[in-house]
Structures are given as C-alpha cells and as structure tokens.
Design goal:
Elements (H helix, E strand, L loop, with lengths): L1 H31 L8 H7 L8 E12 L2 E12 L2 E6 L5 H14 L6 E2 L3 H5 L6 E5 L5 H4 L2 H7 L5 E4 L1 H5 L6 H9 L3 E4 L6 E3 L2 E8 L8 E7 L2 E5 L7 H5 L6 H7 L4 H15 L4 E4 L4 H6 L3 E2 L8
Parallel strand pairs: 1-13, 3-5, 5-6, 6-7, 11-12
Antiparallel strand pairs: 1-2, 1-4, 2-3, 8-9, 9-10, 10-11
C-alpha cells in the first residue's frame, strides 16, 4: 500500500511538472511571435500634432516597495486637457491587493513590506468622474487591479482602449488582468491595426503595440511641456537598465514572466534612442524615483475638477 501510494504521488508530481513545463514552453513560444513594427520618432510626432498637447500629466502612486530591484512604484498616469475628458494609463492597486502582490517579494527576496497610499479612487475622490478613457501598458494585475473600483465609482463609466494584441493574446500572467477588465462595468474598444494607433476621442494619445514583456504590452505617447512622452510600462523596471540595455534576471524571464529577451533588447535600444532626443522623454512604469525627478508631478486634487 505504501509503495502504491508513493508511486501515485510521484506520478502526480511528474504530471504537475509536465503541465508547468508545457505552460512555460507555450508562453515562451507565444511571446517570441509578437514583434510588431516600431515607428520612427517622426511617425510618432506626426501622430501627435502640437495642438493635441496635454495641459497636465501627473501620476497617482498607489504603492511602493523597496527590494533587491530598487524602489518600485505602482502608478496610474493621468493625462488631461482643458476641453475633453481625462485619460488614465494603468490603474495601480488598492491597498489589499498591493500588499498581497508584494508579499512574495517580501518573503522570498527579503524586500521591505509594501507601503500603500490608497487606490486611484480613494486618492482622487470625486475627480475620478473626469476620467473618460483608460488604457493599460499590459495586463499584469499590479497594473489592472484598480479598474473595477474606478468604473464602479463613475456615474458615466470610462471606455477602456486596447490594441488587438492586448485584448486577444493572453498567457497565465495576463489572464487575471484580462478578467479584471472583462468584469468591470466600463465598456471596451479595440484600436485599429496601425503601427501608431490613434485613440478615438483622445487626439493627444497614441498607442504602440510592443510585445517583449507580455504579448499585449503597449507603449503610449503624448505631448506635454514641449516634449513627446513615451510611457513604456515594464519593458524595464528602471531607467538605468534602459539606458544601459541591461537584461532582467534570467530566472525572472524564464520562469516568472515569460519574456522575449531578444525583443526586449530591441525595445530598450529603440526607447533609448528616443530618450536621447531633446524632444522626447521615456518613463518606465515602476521607477518611482525617475517619476519624481521628471517634469511630471504627483497628482493633486487641484489638478482636475470633476
């Protein structure tokens, strides 16, 4: 009986490992197929005429965590104009989700406990009604967990804009984020096939399908303060890695988030070439110190009126 039980356990473990291996292999194959064309600086500028420039761009930081990868922030990016609704890029996390998200890094990587600052809704209060459009750099839950609360709080829920790749191609890491969007009451709109995708109703925003980090990774560009700003999501976790074309840790890209290292290097080089221009600036999602040092400021209640 003991021998049979041992064999059963060994069989189940082997089957579990095979299932995990199959999932990883499938996800790695999928991400390596996603290499959409990248636009030139001139193509991005042409899609963003001067009159489309934002009046204000600010960030809403929902949580930070100090760890072996530096100080990571979890921000939503708020873009506003005087004559139309505001646009939110990524939604951060409410406190409970932020603490749960950071717990594995705290336990296994000796990171500090997550410090939370409140969800986008709790920080913005009534001003959340001004958000008319929402988009995501990618669908990991640290970028999407705030969507349900925002849509529920709005009298007229915003529209979520996504590229076809982001909406249609999921893996085990992005499926929970896709569920966050699918179950929110905000309506959804899929953007066209262009390399530089205009966001309907928001002429000051363009989306650029990227891949590399997830199949649906998307970069967004907007004019502000005399520059074109590129919001690059998690192509890297910090600007130092972008400037020096440094890969993420091999174990992270192999076993945690199945990335395409070759595509990531291509994207870093392309983004760095844009960031070197005087009329462009790139920011990655989690480098909270880079956000603080940029011309983009933390959101304040006076920035937007409901």
């Amino acid at each position: 009986m003991i021998r049979k039980l041992s064999r059963l356990i060994a069989t189940l473990l082997a089957l579990g490992l095979l299932a995990i291996a199959a999932l990883l292999i499938t996800s790695h194959w999928q991400i390596r197929q996603v290499e959409p064309a990248l636009p030139t600086a001139a193509e991005i500028e042409a899609a963003l005429p001067e009159e489309s420039a934002a009046a204000t761009i600010s960030y809403v930081n929902t949580a930070t965590q100090n760890g072996p990868f530096g100080k990571l922030g979890h921000v939503g990016v708020l873009i506003e104009w005087p004559d139309r609704a505001a646009f939110l890029l990524d939604t951060g996390m409410p406190p409970a989700q932020a603490i749960a998200f950071g717990a594995p890094m705290e336990r296994f990587l000796k990171a500090d406990p997550t410090q939370t600052f409140g969800s986008v809704v709790s920080q913005m209060g009534a001003a959340v009604q001004s958000i008319g459009g929402i988009a995501f750099t990618h669908l990991h839950t640290d970028h999407t967990d705030g969507i349900g609360g925002i849509c529920n709080a709005q009298a007229n829920p915003a529209t979520v804009f996504q590229t076809g790749l982001q909406r249609e191609q999921q893996n085990y890491g992005t499926s929970p984020g896709e569920k966050n969007i699918a179950t929110a009451i905000c309506r959804r709109l899929t953007l066209g096939p262009d390399t530089v995708k205009q966001v309907p109703g928001f002429p000051g925003i363009v989306a650029i399908a990227a891949g590399g980090h997830t199949p649906g990774s998307t970069l967004f560009a907007s004019r502000f303060n005399g520059k074109v700003w590129i919001f690059a999501g998690d192509i890297t976790n910090d600007m130092h890695s972008l400037h020096n074309n440094i890969d993420k840790h091999w174990a992270y890209t192999a076993f945690i988030v199945p990335e395409s290292p070759a595509r990531q290097r291509q994207l870093r080089l392309w983004l760095e070439s844009l960031d070197q221009r005087a009329d462009f600036q790139v920011l990655v999602a989690h480098d909270i110190e880079a956000w603080k040092q940029s011309e983009i400021t933390a959101w304040r209640a006076r920035d937007i009126q409901p």
